[in-house]
Write a structure and sequence with these properties.
It is built from eleven helices and 13 strands. The protein is α/β, with parallel strands linked by helices and 325 residues long. Helix 2 packs parallel to helix 10.
């Protein structure tokens, strides 16, 4: 999928792109004679991935969760800035936006529609259902079939969509058989309200079990350069060509803590978060990182990470350091 599918019709896009190009040019100069270089995104091998066989996306997307109030609760303190971040993410090449009805709750989906509707051609909006929010920073799985059907209908309305391209079961509810929860989503898919179905925080065994009920095209588990608990799920996704969407790709609220990796990043004129995102893209061709931020500056830094390349020798060093982080 190329940039022509995202017309430059939003105010400020030219200046931001010029800024990004200047930033990358400066980075290339700083890295002269070193292993890391900045390349055009289109030159990167495996720069895109096709979800479900018919949804091509750029592999570095945008996670909208942080565009809410404190504790992922309520509206953001600066709503205009949040809209601007969403618009800039698309202008900078992210054509996979991830959200959930639990973010806010509800406000995140409403904000996406405010900022981006009518949606640019080729934009994939992935949302989730299956968790309720008693309060800030509180998350409770809820996977009853009738509840999930209501969630799909309400997300369609908030997002102003006739069909959700990717709908993910936010969590497997231990009180509800997975077959019942996914059976409800399968019904909504058959009704034309969902295009593809994904899962979140699941083991390979759970994915296998789910695929007996309905095709699964993505898995969204916590994963980053210093937290690789779900390596086994990633390996399964690679084998089956299922998209792997790591949440907290730069550590979330915990951040990325590694003196050795921090030094590598500093030595190459980049941030540790850019290093972490570049590592994820290097780690697997099915990896679809969705870093989120409410800062335009951080957004531009994140998107620049897809243009960072290291030599094979440098990657070996980074991988070794990541294994001990």
């Amino acid at each position: 999928m190329n940039s022509e599918r995202f017309p430059e019709n939003r105010r400020g896009v030219l200046s931001r792109r010029l800024f990004l190009r200047a930033t990358l040019a400066t980075g290339a100069t700083l890295l002269a004679g070193r292993a890391a270089t900045f390349l055009a995104a289109s030159a990167n091998e495996n720069a895109s991935f096709t979800i479900g066989g018919d949804l091509p996306v750029h592999r570095l997307g945008f996670g909208a969760m942080r565009l809410t109030g404190e504790g992922i609760w309520g509206w953001p303190p600066d709503r205009a800035n949040a809209r601007k971040v969403l618009q800039s993410a698309v202008e900078l090449g992210a054509n996979l936006i991830d959200t959930a009805d639990a973010y806010g709750p509800e406000t995140d989906e409403l904000l996406i529609a405010e900022a981006l509707y009518p949606y640019p051609k080729g934009l994939v909006i992935a949302t989730k259902g299956g968790q309720i929010r008693p309060g800030p920073n509180q998350w409770v799985p809820k996977g009853e079939p009738e509840y999930l059907k209501q969630c799909v209908d309400k997300s369609l309305k908030r997002l102003k969509l006739d069909r959700i391209d990717l709908y993910q079961l936010h969590r497997v509810d231990p009180k509800v058989p997975m077959e019942d929860s996914l059976g409800a989503l399968k019904e909504m898919q058959s009704a034309g309200k969902i295009r593809h179905i994904g899962l979140s925080e699941v083991s390979p065994e759970q994915v296998q079990r789910a695929r007996k009920i309905v095709p699964i095209v993505t898995v969204q588990n916590r994963y980053n350069i210093t937290d690789r608990k779900w390596d086994n799920t990633l390996a399964y996704c690679e084998k089956e060509q299922i998209g792997f969407m790591p949440w907290a790709p730069v550590g979330g609220s915990r951040g990325v803590s590694s003196d050795a990796l921090e030094k590598v990043a500093k030595d190459h004129g980049i941030t540790i978060y850019q290093l972490g995102l570049a590592w994820l893209l290097h780690r697997s061709p099915v990896m679809l990182p969705i870093p989120g931020t409410s800062s335009l500056k951080h957004l531009e830094e994140n998107m620049a990470a897809r243009k960072i390349q290291f030599s094979p020798e440098e990657w070996k060093t980074i991988d070794a350091l990541a294994n001990t982080a």
